[in-house]
Structure formats: structure tokens, C-alpha cells
Amino acid sequence: MSRAILAAKNGLKSHFPNPMVGCVIVHQNKVIAQGITSPYTGPHAEVNAINQVKDKSILSQCSLYVTLEPCAHYGNTPPCANLITSYSIPLVIIGVLDPNPKVAGKGIEILEKAGTKVKSIRLVDGDHNIDCKIDGFGSMALKSEFVKKA
Questions:
Q1: What is the C-alpha separation between 37 and 44, in angstroms, rounded?
Q2: What is the value of pTM for the model shown?
Q3: How far, in Å, are 9, 46, 145, 146 from residue 129 at the CA level?
Q4: Which of 43, 59, 74, 107 falls 20 to 30 Å from 19 in CA-CA distance?
Q5: pLDDT at position 18
Q6: 69 catalytically annotated
């Protein structure tokens, strides 16, 4: 997950108004792809990571780590949760549940209904929890500021 967080941080400010998201795909304990959210109207982190995998047949043997719950609605792009299930990725580890009412657990629901095992963890970066909040521009994002761990 730390690699996904680092990828998201590297995309800081290029993603606006989309959330700052990082995604890493692991096969046989090796990172084989990573992606970040593209500028507005572009592909999300999960799509960018999946597109980097040359042999898509191995995705059914991979784990996908993503800092924010995969989206579950049609906007400028189709739902990332549907894309993940289309490749039968067996395990998805999510850093933060998406507070956006259009998602808010629906991405996890899509994944689980398709047979994907989902683990949700609270992101921690060093001594800080990473918080997902609505910023001053109305964008729901992983903030670049951190909240001290309780």
C-alpha cells in the first residue's frame, strides 16, 4: 500500500478535481504495474495500472492495492469496480472508503458480488493517518496534509 500512496503523492495537483489516487498491481509478490489518477475526464488510477499490464491473463492471479475505494458510477469514465471484476482480480486492498455518496461502499459491493475478496485498511504514512476529506473546492480527495495518528 505504501507504493500506492507514493504513486498518489507523485500525482499531486495533476489530478484535480478528481481525487488523488494511487494503484499498484502485484503478481507473485512483485509489483508489475502502478497508476495514478489522470487529469480531469481521464482514466482513474486503477485503469492506468491495469493498462500497464501487458499479459492481461495474469490479472486473475494478482492483487490490486488502491488508496481509494474504486468508483461504482458512470461519470466521465465507466466504473472502475466493473473493470476490476471484468479481469477477475481476486483480491483488492482499499486504503480509504470513498465518502462520495455515488460510491460510499458501492464499489466494494460490486467487487464482492463478483467474488473478489476485499480488504479495507486505514492508510498510515509514518506517524500519520491519511484522511479523506472534501477539500475547499468540493473535491473529495486524499489530502496532502496528514492527521496525526490517535
A1: 4
A2: 0.75
A3: 14, 22, 10, 6
A4: 59
A5: 65
A6: no
